[in-house]
Amino acid sequence: MRIGINKFIALAFSATLLFGCEATRNANNTQKGAVIGAGSGAVIGGVIGNNVGKGNSALGAIIGGVVGGAAGGYIGNRMDKQAKQIEQEIPGAEVERVGEGINVTFDEASGVYFDTEKYNINAKSQETLNKLAAIFKEYPNTNVLVEGHTDNTGSDSYNLTLSKNRAQAVTNYMVTNGLDKGRFDTKWYGEAQPKYDNTTAEGRSKNRRVELAIVANEELKKEAEEATKEN
Fold it and tell me: I need a labelling partner for 39 at 20 to 30 A (CA). Which of 11, 96, 169, 180 fits?
């Protein structure tokens, strides 16, 4: 499982400066979430989330929703377990634990993909999404942002519509598998947020992706605050 990316590393580094190198050097994801949250809080988390979201909206949604402090550590522990399970049961998924959430990316090489110019869920994608739905049922106190992305082949308007249809297809499939529709937020960006080089076939393939941001819902946040508040 990938833990963080360049921008998140920069955030962690800032927290290290505030709280001391030793405190964060040996910390796991749960501990890092608590340390960073204690210093930044939800307000700073939201500012960072908005800035990051300009280039990666899934990551921005995760960091922007930070609770912080001991409650953030409690949530981080839950997310550690969920991320590990996703990685174990869906080995093709790219799983990143970021702060108090999880960023999961599926592309053509990793289990959820679409035939050219299509947006129906094919048999291979169904197999992967069935596993993911089962995991989400085990962790009901999380919400999920589903995003659709494309490469830059074709017009902007065509790619935007295609990414919309694909993202909605994933959300609809999860709902038909018994998950609460209210847990899902669905967005689409066409070719506007490439993560890889669109001048190569491999890069274009990876940019044709569905990306998920998994975050704590209000119930889990309240549970975390109650479980960690000082007596």
Answer: 96
Can you say how many angstroms the Cα of residue 16 is from the centroid of all Cα atoms in its chain?
24
- Closest by CA to 65, choosing from 156, 118, 10, 143, is 143
> Which three-class secondary structure string do you get for 102-134?
EEEEECCCCCCCCCCCCCCCCHHHHHHHHHHHH
Global pTM exceeds 0.85:
no
User: What's the token pair of residue 191?
Assistant: 């070719």
Mean pLDDT per block of 10 residues along the chain (231 residues) reads: 47 38 39 42 40 63 86 95 96 92 88 80 91 97 96 95 96 97 96 94 90 96 92 45
Q: Maximum CA pair distance of the chain?
A: 59
User: What span, in angstroms and rounded, lies between the C-alpha atoms of 132 and 94?
Assistant: 13
Phi, psi of 148 (to 5 degrees): -110, 135
